Amino acid sequence: MKKSALLISFLLLLASFAAFQGCDIIKPEDRIEWEVDTTNNDTINPGEVDSTKVVYIGDYTGHTCGNCPRAAEKATQLKGVYGDQLVVVALHVGNFAKPKNPDYPADYRTAEGTEMDAFFGCAAEGLPLGLVDQKDFSGKLRIAYSQWGTYVSQQLNETPTVAMGLKADYNATTREVSIQVDVRYLTDASVNENVVVQIIEDSIVGPQTDYSKTPDLLPDYVHNHMLQATVTSNTWGEPLSATAISQGDQFTKTWKFTLDNSWVANNCAVVAYVMDNSTKVIRNVREVEIGE
């Protein structure tokens, strides 16, 4: 019995040593920081991230803007070229977006879109205009749709500074969307980094002026990529960190958002982007359909 016990103890010791030898050493750059959702105090599992650079176009538009359909066509064309590496958000702003009875009764404006336009000045300069990653290209911030392709291509050639992941789970009964954004920094950054989460909707049928048509009022125009709401607590998003960010730092944020009853869930998507809040330049962006 004593010999058996000694043999068992020896074997257990060998097994423990082998297990120890088989463990991977976690390098500092591979460590993941965990964030806690303060709404429920549950620990959140960080999700997968990838470093693919995706470019954002903010299409500033309005339903009585007769040249704005050309910008929408350009956005569709570019989506056909770049696919998931391009995210388009249509913001209805300014006088061209105001309801105008009896032909234009809908109001597609949002408080967030109006605030963004007041900051960037697109409607004041004249629609249609767009922003590419909300970046000023040597004095060129508000960009005509004919030049969007040039700057999208330029941004896609930039080395990404953050990797991202985005998940959106939809409960059809409650119309609640559970959203998770994961961000890993590939470079150091300042404390002034925000994440913005928005809801957009496709296939909204309504009147639109189109100067290329006769008559120029199109009663059944299909509006796509329309900004419907901002999920984050304000237009410019929420801070990722209270301190300076180092390369390799990862953050996970979650939200719950209930879709308006007038929105078609199957036509909605979540857009999330990370930006330098001091310049508003978007580092990277992701889009996922509701429930995808």
Structural commentary:
Helix content is about 20%, strand content about 35%. The longest helix is centred in the first third of the chain and has 21 residues, at about 1-20. The protein has one domain: Immunoglobulin-like (Sandwich), CATH 2.60.40. The chain is globular. Strands 8, 11, 12, 14 and 15 form a 5-stranded antiparallel beta sheet that branches. The termini are far apart. With about 290 residues, the chain is an alpha+beta fold.
What is the share of helical residues? 10-25%
Number of helices: 5
Overall radius of gyration: 24 Å
Stretches where pLDDT is under 50 for at least 5 consecutive residues are 1-42
Please state the overall shape, judged from the principal axes of the Cα atoms: globular
Helix/strand/pairing category: alpha+beta
What's the total number of strands? 15
Number of domains: 1
Beta-strand portion reads 25-35%
Overall pLDDT metric: 88
CATH class membership: Mainly Beta
CATH architecture: Sandwich
CATH topology annotation: Immunoglobulin-like
Write the H/E string, N to C: HEEEHEHHEHEEEEEEEEEE
Measure the end-to-end span.
61 Å
Largest sheet: 5 strands, antiparallel
For CATH, the homologous superfamily is named as Immunoglobulins
Please write out the topology.
Layout: H1 2-22, E1 36-37, E2 42-43, E3 55-61, H2 68-82, E4 86-92, H3 111-120, H4 122-125, E5 129-132, H5 148-156, E6 162-171, E7 176-185, E8 193-201, E9 204-209, E10 217-223, E11 226-230, E12 238-239, E13 250-258, E14 268-276, E15 281-289
Compact overview of the structure:
With 292 residues, the protein is α+β, with helices and mostly antiparallel strands. It contains five helices and 15 strands.
